[in-house]
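Data availability (excerpt). All sequences and predicted token strings are deposited with the supplementary files. A representative entry, DNA polymerase III epsilon subunit (EC), is shown inline so that the format can be inspected without opening the archive.
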Amino acid sequence: MINKLKYKYQKAKLKNKDFDFLFNELDDNEEYVSFDCETTGLNPKKDEILSIGAVKLIDNKIEFSESFEKFLSPINHISQESIKIHHIRPCDIANCIDSKIAIEEFLHFIGNRTLIGYYIKFDIAMINRYAKKLIGTTIPNKSIELSTMYYKRYQKQSSHEFVDLKFDTIMEKLDLPKLGQHDALNDAVMSAMMYLKLKHMAEYKGAYS
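Structure token line:
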């Protein structure tokens, strides 16, 4: 009920009808978008997106030809502290595009598909900050959190066992290859691989789950 009310509110706030497609009903085809953002910090209210990487999953296959990678022009200076995290230097985004154009293209890329990601709420919050200025509302897409999927499938040996939910740890435990350095597109592809691996694993229903 709450989700339906939120959906109606989001649609009512839409000011750009060119983006009505975001509110189309999902069809029977299994299509998803795995995505990741590199940002100047971890505060969606003030930090900026530096790059977006995304890839489509269609019929349980990663469509590498259907990938998305954009570097955005930040308003503020990139601090040395943030460079240590995302490794994106000012010279790396010298030929980047305006954030408005990048977000428009990203919204067209994702359509109404379900979104997949690692700690995806943060990435969606970052996209929403830009989307609200562009179309008047936040994106209504459903989302799947990979750390939650992994946690539900991890067979704990006791109720006190700590489950390491770091991205690299999950990749290692699932025996998935790492694709070089962490950047938005690589992380989106690895997240897609993670999803496909977890999707075919049964949730753990043991005594300690």
